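Format notes (please read before filing issues)

Several people have asked whether sequences and structure tokens are stored in separate files. They are not. Every record keeps both together, in the order shown below: the sequence lines, then the token lines. Line labels are part of the format and must not be stripped during preprocessing.
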Amino acid sequence: MSDLLTDNVKDALLPAPEGVTLIIMVGNALRRDDGAGPYIFNHIQRTDDRIRLMNVADRPEDSIDEAVAIAPVKTVIIDAADFGGAPGEARIIPQEQIPDSTLSTHTFPLKIITGILEEDTGSEVVFLGIQPADVSWGEGLTAEVKMAADTIIGILEKGERHA
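Then the structure lines:
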């Protein structure tokens, strides 16, 4: 599984050297692998003091006001994203490659959210997509996506790359 989380993904999950890092989890827990973000949020036991966590479920637009109040120096948005990778693969998706339409089951395009967050917080915004295997109605992650989510949880809890 660790080969599905590249070094740049692991680095993106680390807290910024100074200031607050905001991790925003997006997804619908009733759409199988689309629930990867909420799964991560619900299973983290502890994080570095410099990390703030936010679960916005399938309403990423709800993150804007709170994110502005937190004033992070770094923001990481974690969501299921169909980019044609292997199930469970995590990838940093550059802002210019985020489609104007939605990548997942929510209706507000993440490209707009990332742009607003960058402008309103001055934060570096990173979009981390996890390739789903199944986004049909139902609960629970597939084995591959659960492994990726658990690896991400380990990195966030330890605040270091080697989870």
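For reference, the curators noted about this record: The beta strands are 21-26, 51-57, 74-80, 90-92, 124-130. The longest helix spans residues 143-158.
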